[in-house]
Amino acid sequence: MSHPDFRVGGKVxxxxxxxxxxxxxxxxxxxxxEGFVAEFPRVFAPVKxxxxxxxxxxxxxxxxxxEAVAEAIRLAWRRRAPARLQSR
Length: 88
Fold this sequence. Notes:
alpha+beta, five-stranded antiparallel beta sheet, globular
């Protein structure tokens, strides 16, 4: 799809360069998304449409807080990783 994505167990948990070079996307739960958006509204926003309602969360890279983004990536990985990998 013309942008790098990151997968675990064959499932995408994060993408870079979507919708443009200044953004990334992580796949969170709707509750996790709500928390990140509330705490860091300049950094995190729901992706437009149904994907966003299900937890796809856009990250503004120029405004990004490194620790918050790292935590979002960890949560996205855990959400998609098979149980056998999570137990390690």
